Amino acid sequence: MSKSNSPIDSENVPTPGRSAQQSFWVRVGAWMLNRQVAWIVLLLTLLVTLSVWKNAEEALLQAQQVQFENRASDVSDAILKRMQAYEHVLRGGVGLLAASESVSRTEWKVYVASLRIQERYPGIQGIAFSAYIPAARLDAHLRTIRAEGFPDYAIRPAGVRAEYTSIIYLEPFDWRNQRAFGFDMFSEATRRAAMERARDTGGTAISSKVTLVQETGKEVQAGMLMYLPYYKNGTPHNTLAERRANLVGYVYSPFRLNDFMSGILEQKQTGVELDIDVEVYDGTQHSADSLLYDDDGIAHALGKPAAGSLTLTRQIDLYGHTWSLHFTTRPAFHAAFDKNKPLFILVVGTLLSVMLAGLIWMFSTQRRRALEMSTSSLDSEHRVRALLDNMDEGIVVISETGMIEMSNPAAERLFGYRSEEVVGKNVSMLMPEPYHSEHDGYLANYLRTGQAKIIGRGREVTAKRSDGSVFPMDLRISEFSLEGRRQFIGSIRDITERKRAQDEILRLNASLEERGQQRTAQLEAANKELESFSYSVSHDLRAPLHGIDGFSQALLEDYAAKLDDQGKGYLQRVRAATQRMAELIDDMLNLARVTRAPMQRAPVDLSALATAITDELRQTQPERAMEVVVQPGLVADGDAKLLKVLLMNLLANAWKFTGKQERARIEFGMQPGGGVPAYFVHDNGVGFDMQYVHKLFGAFQRLHAMDEFPGTGVGLATVQRIVHRHGGRAWAEAAVEQGATFFFTLAPESAPAQAMPSTRREQ
Amino acid sequence: MSDKTILLVEDNPDDEALTLRALKKNNIFNQVTIVRDGAEALDYLFCTGAYAGRDASQQPAVTLLDLKLPKVEGLEVLKRLRADERTRLLPVVILTSSKEEQDMLNGYRLGANSYICKPVDFAKFMEAVKQLGLYWLVLNEIPPGN
Asked: Mutate which of B96, B122, B129 to test chain A, going by most A C-beta atoms within 10 A?
């Protein structure tokens, strides 16, 4: 199979710029494959939508605010203008008075009528003149007015005051205005305050909220008055004193606020319902008492503003007097604006965001799937090829006629043929006789009957190389079907080396077995020999001792008279040496026995054993004061007979070496601590020097003089032998005249020995 | 007591002399027949070979049998004695210097009536022989028919 390096790839060397551009777009493309992008886009577009929606909302609010403020300004302006107009009218009245020495009631009537106030100045109740009357001139005044055809004229309210005012002209002099005729406005504090301000400043003044005397009790409206002072013609009124001295009276107008305001507002919004609510308060404080005018009977400034409505308060200055205007938008105001626009932006923007993200998601998913499919099919082909090329096993694929379809490099190496030399040829070329001739028939038989000899399992067969040499191989064949054709894959492994190794192992095993048998036989022979040796020792070495001892005794008995004391002493020594020899033989035999005897492990009650042994020892020397301490309940796994010998030796030693102690003490127990149990036999006897500890467990080794402590020196060797046979360790600790402790374990210590003094280790 | 005989199977003349001495010292004056090996012991007891003419009804009250013997081992002797109807119930005491466990076990298994280990200390040996004579020659009743 040719390598799939496309020649186009190698020719297509891009220019650096283009390459950079390409790689950028490739990166973008790769990035777009990421499904997270869809989420990012959704998030971003939603954020943009929200921001646009928010802006639109704000713009809407701002437009409303601007419009609202414009409306409010319009209304304030209208009020000011109307006030100025009224002031002009009043100034006209003052002018009329100034122009002539005296103005008659008729002249006033004519003047006012000429203004056509009902048409041109709606809301103005009338135009009047109120005369100022110091108490000194009261009677003259009353007479004058009564003379004008009003015989019942009197100043109201009645009473004696220092100064009076009286409304004498009030046009139009209709039924309502006649109610004010003769009314002393100085008698009422609110009016008087405004009048005094006008007098003292020489300018226009308006009053705070009042109830006009014209009111009848029905449809009472808040009222207000505007005053202009009129000084005596030809007199100066530059100073406060002059103004006070020369005051003649006031030209003034009463206003009913509802009439006044509806005049203004109606003029402004002719025929159209006002889309903002207007309330007018006297002064800066908003309260029911200071309410001058209210559009709809609901005092908005005093309650909570309605949801969604805008409010605004303006203060206007009217001739030194403040009015507070409170505006509230009405639903009609807001209705004029297109409130759906931001909502529309929000909904459409969100929809567009979701759609865009969805499109990107779909696009990335499809692209990714497409890419995955293309890369995976390419990859898998490459992978299979690489696998075949790099396998250690030889692979040969044949058709159902036995023709080789392909082979891999490992197969080339195994058989010594190049792939193209074998492809299309019968696979039997790779087989030595008799397989070479039998293969076609075998294959045909398999295809016919399905009886397989190798297919589906593995077998060791012999293969033939191109040079005719043969080698053993492990062959596994599996069958598969490709496009309807049956094919067989042979997987081949050269097992020459394995075979060689196997043979070598077999050979080694055989020789090992042989050697093992020899060794076993040798061991058995040695054991036999040892057995017969100790048997001989037991019988034959002891027999002469009988003779020696027996005849020494016979000599002592039968020839006592012929022997002097020294002779008898020598014979006694002979006998003692004989006894020692006998003991040695016995101990040696015991030692041999503990080495040879078969072991039978079972739980052994060491405590009971130790107690029994010490009881026995006590009986041998009942006269000795001995304290024996045995830790109860110590049970170990071991051979009962051997453990008895072991304890016997250790306890007898302890017994022996405490012989010179006045208060002898022997203790048997187990050392506290984890791990393999370590038992000990402790005594408070003579002990020994630790520098000889290495000799302790050797056979026939003794650390004490014979006449001091008799013994053969085999006991501890026996102990160690028994301990070793159990897989344990034996060691000792002692000091001269300080007693000795012998330790032993009865099982292998799984962990390496803990840090123990080197003196503890047996050699 | 005096008509009861002892058969001593002992190849070691020293041991023989010491055993006889011990018997004498303990005032045991019964007749002691000495044979030197296992084969001779069998001949004696079965009245064959050199002892062909011996009266088979006169068997020893006790046979002191050593184990390590020339020709036929002590245990083999015991085995043959126990295998024969005539000698099956004959009291046999193994008297040996072997302390081998195996020997003791085999001895009893093969039908020894007693097993005595010769102490090296002659005094103790004396005591052992004294007890032995007292028991087998005085206290013990021989099985009927012998």
From this structure: B122
pLDDT digits (tens, 9 = 90+) for B31-67: 999 999 899 999 999 999 889 888 888 889 999 999 8
Alpha carbon A469 to its chain's center: 69
The burial of A709, by beta-carbon neighbours within 10 Å (0-12 exposed, 13-18 middle, 19 or more buried), is given as middle
> Going from the N-terminus, what domains does chain B have, and what CATH number goes with each?
6-138 (3.40.50.2300)
Summarize pLDDT for A445-471 with one digit per residue, the tens.
888 887 766 676 678 888 888 888 888
Report the topology of domain A600-760: Heat Shock Protein 90 (3.30.565)
List the single residue in B21, B101, B120 with the smallest CB-CB distance to A579.
Answer: B120
CA–CA distance from A328 to each of A61, A282, A338, A523, B66 (Å)? 15, 18, 19, 125, 146
User: Can you tell me the ipTM of this complex?
Assistant: 0.78
B68 contacts in chain A (CB < 8 Å): 539-540
What distance in Å separates the CA atoms of residue B46 and residue B134, rounded to the nearest whole number? 26
Most A-contacting residue of B26, B97, B126 (CB-CB within 10 A), to test interface = B97
CATH value of A391-494 in 3.30.450.20, 3.40.50.970, 3.40.50.1370, 3.40.50.720:
3.30.450.20
- Angle at the Cα of B63 from the Cα atoms of B58 and B65, rounded to 5 degrees: 145
Q: Which residues of B touch A712 (CB under 8 A)?
A: none
Quick: pLDDT tens for A255-289: 888 888 887 777 555 445 577 888 899 888 888 88
Kindly report the pTM of this predicted structure.
0.40
* Neighboring chain A residues of B18 at a CB cutoff of 8 Å: 546-547, 550-551, 554
CA distance readout (Å), A515 to A17, A507, A509, A521, A522 = 82, 12, 10, 10, 10
Q: So what's the pLDDT on residue A226?
A: 92
Closest-CA residue in chain A for B20?
A550
